[in-house]
Design a protein that fits this description.
Radius of gyration of chain A: 20 Å
Helix content of chain B: over 70%
Number of helices of chain A: 6
Order of helices and strands of chain B: HHHHHHH
Radius of gyration of chain B: 20 Å
Shape of chain A: flat
Structural class of chain B: mainly alpha
Distance between the termini of chain B: 48 Å
Number of domains of chain A: 2
Number of domains of chain B: 1
Oligomer: heterodimer
Distance between the termini of chain A: 44 Å
């Protein structure tokens, strides 16, 4: 019974949460705090805060941790499965169709027409990250980190992994 | 070997994607298109479009599909687990032992310092997609479409999934016709 509830608690936000994991957080809160009463709002926001401080997708981190709290290791797996599997299966099916007809002019045109939309979406995300960072660390640090990471990644072709690690160390030492 | 590469690629994506799933998009692109060349920019663009249109977490949708494309259902499970397990593990350990770490100054410093880096990667990817669009349909149409989409997203608050869905329907629903120069011209005006 608890496993079924865990599944539902993460399946519903997964299906209704448009815009990736972060968009589904309020929906998760609704299930976990209001419907099933597994934790208080206070506890939920603590989990969320830690989730935001750690790397990786946020929705699955929440599903994994809350599932584990409620039903141990199987609970963690069921929570993650509920969050991830349904839309993933639909996507594999749809992309399978696309791939099969990838030489048809329609599909090629589609690939072309979504490009500006993708560019705008990515651009907006970039903007949000810049704005958020500016609020937290100010213009000087923002320009410094932005400039050096651009040089490293784009001009010197350093793998982003190293640049991210470098920025984490820099942040821990100088911005802590 | 492929499974090991899949695991490595998505382990890196999961461990380095600060700021939730969307922040990991440029990392996925780096691993999948640039490093291992499992797909080209076109296919990555389609994948991103569809992942944005369907509900649910975006990073795992991308990991799952790419894993599946590269080596079937086993690849799917491998890639999804590599993306999420390490950080879920960290989260459980941290929350069940010490729960004050997110308040520590240095953790805050780390998460804010990584943001501009993510922003730079997203901006570069943005530029690449604009450039690709330009190559396919010219600057005029790229700009026109971008402006309309931008306005719909920011001023009308239309959901991106709806916009991409409409774009997909518009192209699929269209009648097939031979691609003459005249048709091209009409398309550009329409």
């Amino acid at each position: 019974m608890i496993y079924w509830q865990i599944f539902l608690a993460f399946f519903i936000p997964g299906i209704l949460g448009y815009g990736g994991g972060p968009a589904s957080i309020p929906l998760v809160e609704n299930e976990v705090v209001k419907r099933y009463d597994w934790m208080t709002i206070q506890e939920f926001s603590e989990v969320l805060a830690l989730g935001n401080a750690l790397p990786g997708p946020i929705a699955t981190k929440m599903a994994g941790y809350i599932g584990y709290e409620q039903g141990g290791v199987p609970g963690a797996f069921i929570g993650v499965f509920g969050a991830v599997a349904p839309s993933l299966i639909v996507m594999i099916f749809l992309l399978g169709l696309l791939y099969k007809y990838k030489d048809s002019p329609k599909v090629q045109r589609m690939t072309l027409y979504v490009r500006p939309a993708i560019a705008i979406l990515l651009g907006l995300m970039a903007w949000q990250f810049f704005a958020e960072a500016q609020m937290q660390i100010g213009w000087l640090q923002l320009i410094l980190i932005t400039g050096s990471s651009f040089l490293l990644i784009e001009r010197m072709k350093v793998h982003p992994a190293f640049v991210i690690l470098l920025s984490l160390v820099y942040g821990a030492v100088f911005l802590g | 070997m492929t499974q090991w590469h899949l695991f490595l690629a998505f382990f890196r994506v999961g461990m380095l994607g600060y700021g939730g799933g969307p922040a990991s998009i440029p990392l996925v692109h780096k691993e999948v298109v640039d490093k291992y060349q499992w797909m080209d920019d076109n296919e990555f663009g389609d994948l991103l479009a569809l992942a944005n249109t369907l509900p649910g977490p975006i990073a795992t949708k991308m990991a799952g599909y790419i894993g599946y494309r590269v080596s079937g259902w086993f690849g799917l499970v491998n890639a999804v687990l590599a993306t999420i397990i390490p950080t879920i593990f960290l989260m459980i350990i941290l929350l069940t032992s010490l729960s004050t770490i997110q308040d520590a100054g240095w953790v805050q410093g780390m998460t804010s310092a990584v943001m501009p880096v993510v922003a730079v990667m997203l901006a570069v990817l943005t530029w690449q997609f604009f450039h690709k669009a330009k190559q396919g349909m010219g600057w005029a149409q790229t700009l026109a479409m971008s402006v309309v989409i931008f306005l719909l997203l920011t001023y009308l608050n239309l959901h991106p999934g709806i916009i991409i869905g409409l774009l997909l329907l518009a192209t699929v629903g269209r009648k097939e016709h031979p691609h003459s120069r005249k048709e091209e011209k009409k398309e550009e005006e329409g």
